[in-house]
Each structure stands twice: as structure tokens, then as C-alpha cells.
Amino acid sequence: MQAPIKERYKADAGAALITLKAKGTLDDASIACKVETGRALAVAGLHPATGGSGLELCSGDMLLEALVACAVVTLKAVSTALAIPLKSGTVSAEGDLDFRGTLGVAKDAPVGFREIRLRFEVDTDAPQDKLDLLLKLTERYCVVYQTIKNGPKVSVTMKRV
């Protein structure tokens, strides 16, 4: 399925350069953001640990969900490419936050995740060496995992509209 795409990108590296975009609008009634997902409108707000109602999505949860989604898709693509049959499986992510940081309660508390753990559980008859390769290549090619792990250059601007 991916072979023709890979060949195209080998022949034309510029064709592989894509800019993904996300956009959100401020909610004028509450501390929330309406994010256009491409499929539906997601409303993100404060986590209950910071005063949120719990009715809106938490951006920290969304980050972990994006990591899990990317890891599952990458795992399936790599297992297909390597002909490693997977009967079933789960991928889970969890991360530790100290909300004192984001609330400005303690200057020594970090803002953001202290640690993120990504766990794969698969039902397969494949030998361990194949599973080791599957994990290695899934880590290597998972876009969200690599982005979190390597911390890309990020720029921030603000302008008046």
C-alpha cells in the first residue's frame, strides 16, 4: 500500500514535505478552546486539577491520545511491512504532571509532563527477536513519539487582529 508513495518520495523529496495545521478559537463564555479536528469540533478546557469542569477535553489527555493513535498506526504499518502477524493488542500511554507548575504555585515544579510511559501489549506468535525489531522500528517511525522525544524547534508569535 505504501510502496508507490515511498517511490514517489524517493524520486521527489519535495513531495514529502507537508505542513500539518491545527486551529482553535477562543470560547468567549468560558476558559475553553474550540479545536477544528478535521472531523469534528473538539472543545478543550482546563483539567479538573486546575479548576476545570471536566466536561471539556484536557490538552494533556489529547497529547497522550495523539501519541497512542500514532503508535498504533505505526505499529500496524511496521508489522505489516515485516509480515509479523498481530492477533490483537493494546497501546497505552500515561504521563505524570505536577499541576503546581502550571498553576504557578511552586517555581521548582515543572510545567508539563515529567515522564511519559508508552506501553505495547500484543498477542502474537512471533519470536522475541521479531518483537524487538517491531518495537525498535515503531519507535523510530512514530511521528508523535519522535516529536516528544526529540523536542523540535518551536516558535511562538502573537499579533493583534
Structure commentary:
This protein is α+β, with helices and mostly antiparallel strands. It is 36% helix and 23% strand. Helix 2 (59-81) crosses helix 4. The longest helix is centred in the middle third of the chain and has 23 residues, at 59-81.
What can be said about this structure in brief?
The protein has 161 residues and is α+β, with helices and mostly antiparallel strands.
Residue share in helix:
25-40%
Radius of gyration: 19 Å
- The number of distinct β-strands equals 6
Low-confidence stretches: none
Measured by DSSP, the beta-strand proportion falls in 15-25%
Please state the average pLDDT score: 90
Main β-sheet description: 4 strands, mixed
> What count of helical segments does DSSP give?
5
- Tell me the overall shape: globular
Question: Strands of the largest sheet, in order across it?
Answer: 1-2-3-4
CA distance, first residue to last residue:
44 Å
Order of helices and strands: HEEEEHEHEHH
**How would you classify the helix and strand content by structural class?**
alpha+beta
